[in-house]
Amino acid sequence: MRAFQITQPHVGEVVTLPVPEVGPGEVLVRMHYAGICGSDLHTYEGRHARRKPPLITGHEGSGIIEKVGEGVEGLQEGQPCVILAEQSCGKCRWCKEGHTNLCASKMLLGTKPWPGTFSEYVKAPAANILPLPDGLSLRLAAITEPTAICMHVLRQASWQAGQSALIFGAGGIGSILLSACRVLGMSRAVIADPKQFNVDLAKKLGATVAINNGGEDEGLPALIEACGEEGVDVSFVAASPTSIVNQSFRLTRKRGTVTLVGQFNVPGIVDIDKCRLKEQVIVSSAAANRRDFMEALDILSKHPDAFLPVITSEVTLEETDDFLRAMINNTVPVAKAIIRLI
Q1: Which of 284, 308, 328 is the endpoint of a domain?
Q2: 16 and 109, same structural domain?
Q3: CA–CA distance from 201 to each of 78, 156, 171, 193 (Å)?
């Protein structure tokens, strides 16, 4: 089988490897599409904490069940599916309480112990195989995992139909969040992103107002006007600059919710008193669990037209190395990119 392997930081290549052998309770999936996540870029650069080269990365994607191992029930060859991207221990407090995304012992798809979706074939436990609902295309199902993350974010934020939202960051996660809020009945959504391509996409996806904040503070006056004197009900910080957390305090209403979604890898100063004085709620969100995946499959199957435009780039396995470099160097306009493996 062909696979894209990151051999060392900043170096990747297409390699030929044996097709994984399927054991009892396991399933072999012939991948059709793999999604590219920001964490894959971090892995390519050699700065991901849990994904160190050499390895086959990728934890998003969709495919067809190629082979079913002994003892597997309820699944059959030829079924379209996605893979739940974590194997949790099932024994710790968090697993027992249903918060498998917080399991400290979980194994992640796209790590050395569990080679990822940038490959023609992936082996997974049968329990991690989720068949697609009727009518959901494999291409759109490729973004099930990031959509599951967004469903988890919305639950953490207690977001409800009729509420207004501010989304900082209109890349893959921010764009999917916007689409989800739209189909779930938002009253209005304000989007801020420093890339004009993402701003234009947000407008197409149904943003009430989309603003190029051109380096954090430059768009603040326009954001204040867009969010109104009272502020939005919920803000989602789906980007990394710490300064936009402070802006969220200012732009979210009293007793509103500020939701931390992005990865804040660089220490910064948060003016927490602005939040305290407005009695705002701060919530955070990490990864996704089975419930989130099932809700993602449901919303994607029911509202494909709302989510398909989020996929802005599609490349082959052979084009992956150059494309990852272009994404890192910001020389290609992209919200969500997928790799075509068929």
Answers
A1: 284
A2: yes
A3: 35, 25, 9, 11
Q: Helices 320-328 & 38-45, crossing angle to 10 degrees?
A: 90
Q: Give the Cα separation of 34 and 52 in Å (integer).
A: 19
Same domain, residue pair 7 and 143: yes
Provide the residue range defining the domain that includes 311: 2-147+288-340
106 vs 85: CA distance, rounded Å: 10
- Whether residue 153 lies inside any domain: the answer is no
Residue 327 lies in a domain: yes
Taking CA atoms, 325 is separated from 111, 196, 316, in Å, by 20, 20, 14
Q: Which residues have a Cβ under 8 Å from the Cβ of 201 and sit 6 or more positions away?
A: 170, 175, 309, 310, 312, 335
Tens-digit pLDDT profile for residues 41-51: 999 999 888 88
pLDDT of residue 216: 55
Residue 166, strand partner residues: 190, 235
pLDDT tens digits along 284-295: 999 999 999 999
Does 217 score more than 70 pLDDT? no
CA 234, distance to chain mean position in Å, is 19
How many domains does the chain contain in total? 2
pLDDT in tens, 67-120: 999 999 999 999 999 999 999 999 999 999 999 999 999 999 999 999 999 999
150 contacts: CB under 8 Å, gap ≥ 6? 173, 176, 177, 180, 296
Residue 93 falls inside a structural domain:
yes
Residue 264 has pLDDT above 80, yes or no: no
**Do residues 117 and 59 touch, judged by C-beta distance below 8 A?**
yes
